[in-house]
Write a structure and sequence with these properties.
mainly alpha, 2 domains
Length: 257
């Protein structure tokens, strides 16, 4: 360590990996306003935060597979915090959001505004649980849409109002990966529904696979244009977090072949 430098604390690293989970690889630079804001919060320079984001990128196997190595000179604590985070994504992300809210003198609800336009008819513990579920869904949506550059990873549609952060492993079936961006795909509402029903899937080599039950109706213009033309085509690649192969295998098993 150079003269005048101070060691990064666990708290600073947790907040930095929280930001790492939210922004694309190409945004991890000192001129990014989110990097600058975090730097002010944790008492580090924007360039120091950018370098630490690069350190975390060096641990990411999906980036390594693409030839993106990130920055070296990582510490033992860097690696430890990374492993803790990725091995228990949901709990660690929420804890990091709570810490961020504390540092910003606000609430986790304010960091992740929830649409509560629908009338709330539940009270007490059930109402609280529903708000927490919506908070989680809002946070997941932010991460997944950012990961796919705010566009559908099948069609390229880039209208946020039409996009859904779709879980590969259903929300109800895997509580430990509800917030894991590797368990998410940015899909438009139509393809989200088809994916959920097993009418389309994504193979482990990231190819789009359309069910024969849809392909047989390819003479219908809307089915041809929305499904048949994408069969066998590559998924639009995410910017950082690639879908987990094991999650895809589970979904492939539910595909209507």
């Amino acid at each position: 360590m150079k003269a005048g430098q101070t060691l990064w604390t666990r708290e600073q690293l947790i907040l930095t990996i929280n930001l790492y989970s939210k922004i694309r690889f190409g945004q991890m630079h000192a001129s990014n306003k989110d990097v600058q804001e975090l730097a002010a919060i944790i008492g580090r320079s924007p360039s120091a935060v950018a370098r630490k984001l690069g350190n975390f990128a060096s641990f990411d196997p999906t980036l390594q597979a693409r030839g993106i190595k990130g920055l070296e000179n990582v510490s033992k604590l860097d690696r430890q915090v990374w492993q803790e985070y990725v091995n228990n994504w949901d709990e660690q992300f929420i804890e990091s959001e709570k810490l961020l809210a504390q540092k910003k003198h606000t609430s986790i609800e304010a960091l992740n505004p929830v649409d509560l336009k629908e009338p709330e008819i539940m009270e007490g513990r059930e109402a609280t649980r529903q708000v927490l579920v919506r908070l989680n869904q809002t946070a997941f949506r932010k991460m997944v849409l950012s990961n796919f550059d705010d566009r559908c990873c099948i069609t390229g549609i880039n209208v946020p109002e039409l996009l859904v952060a779709s879980h590969i492993l259903p929300w109800s079936e895997d509580a430990g990966n509800r917030l894991n961006p590797r368990n998410g795909l940015a899909l438009n509402a139509l393809h989200d529904k088809a994916f959920d029903r097993g009418l389309i899937t994504i193979t482990t080599d990231l190819k789009i696979k359309v069910s024969p039950s849809l392909l047989k109706g390819a003479d219908i213009l809307s089915i041809n244009n929305n499904f048949a033309v994408y069969d066998g085509q590559p998924l639009i690649e995410p910017k950082k977090f690639f879908p987990d192969v094991e999650f895809l295998k589970v979904h492939n098993g539910r595909f209507r072949s």
